[in-house]
Amino acid sequence: MTPEREALFKEVVSRRQPNLSVILENVHDMHNIGAVLRSCDSVGICEIFILQTRKDLHFSRLVLGKKTSAGTRKWVDVHYYQDVEACFQHVRKTYDKVWGTYLSGTSKSLYDLDLTKSVALLFGNEQSGITPETLAHADGNFIIPQTGMARSLNISVACAVSLYEAYRQRDQQGFYTYNPKISELQKEDLLKEYIRRHEDGERGEFSDLIK
User: Fold this and answer.
1) Average pLDDT over residues 137-161
2) Number of domains into which the chain is organized
3) Where residue 82 sits, what CATH number does that domain have?
4) Alpha carbons 45 and 37: distance in angstroms, whole number
5) Exposed, middle or buried: residue 147 (CB in 10 Å: 0-12, 13-18, 19+)?
6) pTM of the prediction?
7) Residue 2: pLDDT over 50
8) In a domain, 192, yes or no
């Protein structure tokens, strides 16, 4: 590894946000998942959760194209679940709040959320959205304000808009310069892992253990 490459790895690791994540429920289009991964990597997310509650959407393998994900599958861990309870038990070990994109009388605007806290953002299926069973695990709902005729965004676009609001808020708090959310030990372990993946040439085209 060149010194320049190692310096880049150190910079990326120092800006990772271990208390920010994304949950995708029944999102089946690999291009959408790849685009979400790309956005997650760009704002410093370390891991995401893919939950498939519909049997007709279960993956046998999670294979993402290079163009859509830009190789970020290597750097963002993907946890794949088919069981709702097991998924949220894992999520709740790290993230204090879960906010789902769902329109209701109690939904908040994205711009009213405090996204500097420990939070996972939940997005649903491209057509049917979040299922009631999964929504029951959320702490609340949010919407992205829109004024057009369709009032609907593609899942990967909605995720990117939401994540960059989180980026804006966290950047204002200095989380991308002096980062209080990641310890020196976490940085050291993550740097070692990224270097290992780089040297092993992992492409991230395998599916994680189904749970």
Assistant:
1) 89
2) 1
3) 3.40.1280.10
4) 9
5) exposed
6) 0.88
7) yes
8) no
